[in-house]
Amino acid sequence: MLTIRSLLRTALAGAVCLGVVGLAVVMLESQTADPQRPSTPSPSAIKENQAIFAQKLYPVFSHARCTNCHGRVNLVTGANHATGPAAQFSNCATSGCHTPKEGFPPKEWQVAPESMSMVGKDAREACATLKRHVTAEQFLGLVQSDELIHWAFNPGGTRIPVPRGYADFLRNSVEWVKGGGHCP
Description:
Blueprint: H1 4-32, H2 43-61, H3 64-72, H4 123-133, H5 136-145, H6 147-153, H7 166-178
């Protein structure tokens, strides 16, 4: 005759047994799964991720505040540089023109190399340019810590800031990277 105590003991033993079997299945699956191959996102998830770049990040990448240093200004020829050629300077801050006193970030900074230009590029080309130069982790690191990126959203004076604000840009950057960083 089964008592309540013996029923509970049997149920508990069964639960433990099922738990051990479940744990063994999980361990076996984790050993046979390829850790280098992440799960493949659905086509709709990829499209949503591409849209984040095209609709939320690209307007920042293509904004004049960003393209000014990423391709529009040429310090060698002086193109789009109010004071003309400035190739003799190793960076913009040591020129004496772009210093904290003039409202610029307190950091040595310079125009990006031509290979990182965003001028005249559509969202797909801008994304490809970004991905040629930095990994997803490096991109997020820059977005989070680079003084020039922060400054671009709050440049002070009569300078026009990058639209949508820094917090929005950071949130969209994280979402794009977490979703796979797919180019449009």
